[in-house]
User: What shape does this take?
Amino acid sequence: MVKKNNLVFLNKELDEQLQARVRVLVMKNLIKFRKKFIADYIEQNFSKFMGEDRLLTSDEVMKMLQMSRQTLGRRVKAGVLLPVNPEAKRHYRFMKNDVVNYIERKGGDGND
Assistant: This one.
């Protein structure tokens, strides 16, 4: 039976150096391709990140409208702001478009 030698070179030290270099090159390529993959994903799904159909949390809406959680709750109860998950009691999600429309309506008539 022939015993296989796992060394690429005749010298163990050279073989270890080669393996270390290969690991570095593999990691470098993985990082490069990961960055490209992330950039491509963001480009393809930009509207999900920044588009009008993005969902906003209650905290984001409160900051945008400069109102307290209680005031936000009153607006939801009155039907002025409509969350996409009305069954939630505290952690609502709102369509960004709806919040922008609310801001425009509020600025136009001064009420709410």
Remarks:
- The first helix runs from residue 12 to 44.
- Helices lie at 12-44, 46-50, 58-65, 69-78, 96-109.
- The longest strand covers residues 55-57.
